[in-house]
Amino acid sequence: MVVVLCFLVAGLAYLSGNSACTLADVEISCGKVRGKHCGKVYNFKGIPYASPPTGSLRWRPPKEPTCWNNTLDAIEFKSMCAQVRPLSKDGKAMGSEDCLYVNVWTTSIDHDSKLPVMVWIHGGYLHMLSGSEPGYGPTSDLAEHGPAVHVSFNYRLNAFGFMALHLLREGSPTNTSGNYGFMDQVAALRWVKKNIMKFGGDPDKVTIYGQSSGGTSVWAMMVSPLAKGLFHRAIDISGSAVFTASMDDAEKDNLAFLDQTGCNDAECLRKLSMDKILQSIPWQGYPDWAAEDLCELPQKGKLIGPVAIVDGYVVPAPPLEVWKNKLEGYSDVPFVIGTTLQETDFAPPYANLSQWSEEDYQWFVKVHLDTFGGSLTKDALSLYPTSEYCTQPHRCIEKAFTTMVSDVRETCPKNEVAEQAAGSLTSPVYRYVVTYIPSGPAQPSDLLPYPSRFAFHMLDTLGFFGTLDLALGTTTADDRTFQRLMRKYFLHFAAEGKMPDDWPQYPNKTALLSTTLSAESDYRSKQCSLWQNNGMFQYAWTN
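User: That's the sequence. What structure does it adopt?
Assistant: Structure tokens below.
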């Protein structure tokens, strides 16, 4: 039963526009929760979907939450999961292990509303951020202007969420270790299935979507038997389909972490402080954890392994292998696979990239690609000329370089896996590339060293959430048109399970998203053939 308290609450200054907020109570499976009703939108924040994974529950599958008898205050976000920012040995520890909470925004708490549901999985290299990052998650504005229930949540990160060690298998009913963060995501989706009707949502019309490592998480959910039936559409935004690390290999590699802790058994590890765990992660010595070189051209043999692993339980095998061998338990649902044209422009590897000369550009490309031999360097420079038109003539070299790296690391490998998805799933598969160039320098996060100038990693996400103004300072009419376009297509997909007729399925065409949608056949086929023929897809982004 839903009870809405339709009175103004004296002393509360919760405002949305010109409308004062009231309180709203909803009865869910574990008890009554109290959120806010501001204008047209109800929001409920900090609802536990699992017990705190602390003490003996550290490095265990998530456990059902302890229910409550009184009304639970769901007005403020709860803590982010334990993490360091930035990702280095000098990063600042923040957050808490008590962090497994879900947040909901909706325009209705009538269980008969049957609104589509969109569940956001945040990014952050599986190491950082949260479901409540300002500008990087659902908002009341999104809920008000989109006919859907919007959900976000936290999941365990870094060593707490993805540490694989043989001694952590002790007591595990599945004899596995690692991927605890993915188990949290499954638990959150189970919570949605059980409770979302109380927030006006349709439990049979759930879309999962995530950006960066949130997109990687979407791939994990797509192939995980544990998640089958918990969602009905999926959107990968600049994630990775690379799951090449086995549990055995990861357990051996992670002995470097164990050495730092001084522990020899799981009991000792579970007694360590949060800060000690974070300090023991070998950020500098183990690039899988440090996210190094992801925005740089690869050098032969220098591979960056994933933190997420194939454990045979949550992730039974890499996605392409799951489909090829028709392994049981994967989700055959409508699937959107997206990237931006200059993904790596969000964190270019060189401070002076914008000041490079033509000679600098050619030298940097040569230093990296000459390690592969043959004519790769010559062919690459031919396909990525700095003379190609760009809206900022003094930054054409930056555009050429970040486009090249983005093609190697993300765009072209993603074309291949999208084609495999289209050939393996009976459900429709769609592919998009964002080509829109925002009106000015964008600073989407204070964690990023330089402003972005082109179609950077995260541009589509900020567009959908309607928060480009936070990155740009001010927005132009074109910026706002791009935001409306992102919302239009994503919300249509969530509601209908397909894109409108002007967006063809893949591999027929790729949708190019700017202030309008255009569709192109064989998009970037020459560039992608070069990288594929030279074995470069093994250097695709991880995590």
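DSSP finds 17 helices and 17 strands in the chain.
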